[in-house]
Every structure is written in C-alpha cells, then in structure tokens.
Write a structure and sequence with these properties.
By secondary structure, the chain is α+β, with helices and mostly antiparallel strands. It has one domain: 2-Layer Sandwich (Alpha-Beta Plaits). Helices cover 47% and strands 23% of the residues. A four-stranded antiparallel beta sheet has the order 2-3-1-4. Helix 1 runs antiparallel to helix 5. The longest helix has 18 residues. It holds the Pfam family RraB. This is Ribonuclease E inhibitor RraB.
Length: 144
C-alpha cells in the first residue's frame, strides 16, 4: 500500500514539474494538447478536476522592473502573485495563483491572456502547475 501511494505521488510530482509546462513564446502557436494530456493524467491519478485547486501560472520576464509591472497587472486581475529571480541567468519568474477548478478551456484562456498581457513587458506564459493530493492515495489509505 505504501508503495502504491509513493508511486501515485511520484507520478503527480513528475506531471507537475515536467508535464504541466506549456511553454509559449511570443511567436508560437498556442496548442492545448499538453494541457489536455496533463489534466487527463491528473484525473487518472484520482484528482477531482471539478474541485477548486490553487493553480500557479508562471510568467517568464526579462528583468525585475518588468516583473514588478507584470505582477501588479496580474494582481489587479485578482491573482495572488510573487516575483523571483531565476536560479540561472538574468530571467525572472512571476508566479500568479488563482483558485479554480481544473478545467481545460479556463486554463488555456488564462494562459492566452497572460501571454498577450506579458508580451507588453517582454514576457510570456511559461506554463502552469498545481499541487494536489490524489483521491486514489486517500482512498487507498482509508481502506488499509
């Protein structure tokens, strides 16, 4: 049972760290297939997509001044935001969170809006992530 729970959490962590990245540069075509696949993977892992989750949207920004402007713009749109310098290089990341159901169209539309607005400051949508506790793991724990 413990191995099952560890496996489920490992799958979700990999999905969150790698899979939910829908990197969108200024010139790229926006494709929701990665988002769709990740939502399906989360659902298969037992996550209730209809429940509200705290979804983090990452925005890549070229410098701190632009990052502060993007952060304020997103806060004005009722997101909770933080701004941090990336570990390597001179890039910055603005992480903006919103509590919402994990619904494909909403996630895609928010990323499109972020891409459009961040472009004004030399930034772009750099994916999304969500911390979840799969229902399967909870059910397995309750059974044993």
């Amino acid at each position: 049972m413990i191995k099952t729970i560890r496996f489920i959490y490992a799958v979700c962590i990999i999905t969150l760290l790698v899979g939910c990245q829908s990197i969108v540069s200024e010139d790229s075509y926006f494709n929701d297939s990665a988002d769709r696949q990740n939502l399906e993977s989360l659902e298969r892992s037992g996550v209730d997509l209809a429940q509200k989750h705290n979804v983090d949207f990452q925005i890549a920004i070229r410098d701190e001044i632009s990052g502060k402007k993007v952060k304020q713009m997103m806060m004005d749109k009722n997101f909770t935001c933080s701004l941090e310098k990336d570990f390597e290089g001179n890039q910055w990341t603005c992480t903006c969170s919103q509590e919402m159901p994990l619904e494909l169209n909403a996630i895609v539309e928010i990323q499109k809006m972020i891409n459009k607005e961040a472009k004004k400051y030399g930034g772009y949508s750099d994916g999304w992530g969500v911390m979840v506790k799969p229902a399967i793991a909870t059910k397995n724990k309750e059974v044993n």
